[in-house]
Specification:
With 124 residues, this protein is an alpha+beta fold. The chain is built from four helices and five strands; from the N terminus they run αααββββαβ. It is 37% helix and 16% strand. The protein has a three-stranded antiparallel sheet, with no helix packed on it. β2 and β3 form a beta hairpin. The longest helix is centred in the middle third of the chain and has 24 residues. It starts with a helix and ends with a strand.
């Protein structure tokens, strides 16, 4: 967010997906796909704000300007593993995985947790 805000305030070209992913690579203790999902959500917010500013100027929409203290992070379903009454979330190369002592049932709840959306978790 800081990269985009700095470019916006300096009237420089705004960074795109590739530039933001390059800037965030290795900075966070998360799996790369999770960071990419956050970047994609940020860019979607930028695009929506841009459209709303043009179509509904009376709303006075502002681009993201404040760093969030908490942000919902998603792990892709293929990265999450369930073993022995716990859920294991990878955090990237060379870092220990995040282990949650959650016993998930093997029925419908498993599909809800491990479906196409992956596992949702609030992280600081």
């Amino acid at each position: 967010m800081e990269t985009h805000k700095a470019a916006r305030l300096a009237h420089l070209p705004w960074p795109g997906r590739d530039a933001l992913q390059k800037a965030t690579k290795g900075r966070f203790a998360l799996q790369s796909q999770s960071v990419q999902m956050v970047v994609a959500a940020f860019l979607a917010t930028i695009q929506t704000t841009r459209q709303l500013r043009h179509t509904h100027p009376q709303m006075k929409m502002k681009y993201p300007w404040r760093t969030k203290r908490f942000y919902p992070v998603k792990w892709p379903a293929q990265a999450v593993s369930k073993e022995n009454g716990r859920v294991v979330l990878p955090t990237g190369k060379g870092r220990p995985s995040l282990v949650l002592p959650i016993a998930l049932p093997n029925t419908v709840a498993r599909a809800a947790w491990f479906g196409t959306m992956g596992l949702n978790c609030m992280c600081a």
